[in-house]
Design goal:
8 strands, three-stranded antiparallel β-sheet, ADP-ribosylation fold, globular, alpha+beta
Length: 112
């Protein structure tokens, strides 16, 4: 079972340079937002509509050096949250994640 995180490609490239990945939400909320596979496209539609230059990180949560837990969203749906930086060796795949012309997202075929 993998968890997923959407980010800008530029932010991922910075993570590769420094050796770990963080997101602004880590400073703001104390954790990095992630999704389960079935939640990825809805999360992207809700928070990344019209944004280009995104990548989807496929993360093996058992390889994370930071603590992660499933927590309910404001609508009580459980989402994985990572309480610390994401170590690069926990990221199994990084794939481009661009919106379709209508603004929706499809789960990448490479990760099917």
């Amino acid at each position: 079972m993998y968890i997923y995180h959407i980010t800008k490609n530029d932010d991922w490239l910075k993570a590769e340079e420094i050796g770990s990945y963080t997101a602004p939400s880590l400073d703001q909320e104390g954790f990095i937002h992630c999704s389960f596979r079935h939640q990825v496209c809805d999360t992207a539609r809700r928070y990344y509509a019209g944004i280009h230059g995104l990548v989807l990180l496929e993360i093996d949560p058992h390889k994370l050096t930071s603590r992660w837990i499933n927590e309910p969203s404001t609508e009580e749906e459980l989402f994985p949250h990572v309480y610390g930086s994401i170590n690069l060796d926990a990221v199994m795949h990084i794939v481009p994640f661009e919106p379709q012309t209508d603004g929706t997202f499809n789960f990448p075929m490479e990760l099917e």
